[in-house]
Amino acid sequence: MRKYYCSIFVLGICTLFACNSPITPKPKGYSQLSFPEKKYQSFNEQGYPYAFEYPIYANISKEVDYFGDSKKADNWININFPANNGTVYVSYRTIQPGQLDTLIRDAYAFVNKHNSMANSIQDSMFRTANGISGVFFHIGGDVATNYQFFLTDSTHHFFRGALYFDATPNEDSLAPANAFIFKDLVHLVNTFRWK
Questions:
Q1: Which domains, and CATH codes, for the chain?
Q2: For position 17, what pLDDT does the model report?
Q3: What does the alpha-carbon distance between residue 20 and residue 59 come to, in Å, rounded to a whole number?
Q4: Fewest beta carbons within 10 Å, which of 54, 61, 136, 154?
């Protein structure tokens, strides 16, 4: 009889502790993003050596500050996507003799700075119908920028862009916005021309 009571006591204690599992909160959810219809407008400002089309839901800032140094005179711009907290940071360089290799190396170095967090880095060379050559980079993983590119005519002009979001890098939560803006970047590149 004593064994019977001991067994019931042990079973009761186990039942009490088994039912007191810690409370696990639900993981954070991400709000559904809605995107506008794709329509484009032209950027063809006087004084800038390039022109392209960009979305009507984006705006261009010509007042670019790079570590305290104004780059407005250097034809740098930012293409802002306010609804998505994203910005394409654009730099422009006039190629000096023998400088093209350095500019290309620098573009690859900016991409490779994400190696520690990247799952993959894919680069693809292209040439558009307008005769514009360049390289597009897709960086996979929880990185600060998933898309970067550069365009050049190999003799006079070098145009580089990188898409950043004002958010903590999270590939899954940023995937819809990245995919949406990627199509705009492809349109920008395909409509790009030197003046």
A1: 40-194 (3.40.1000)
A2: 60
A3: 55
A4: 154
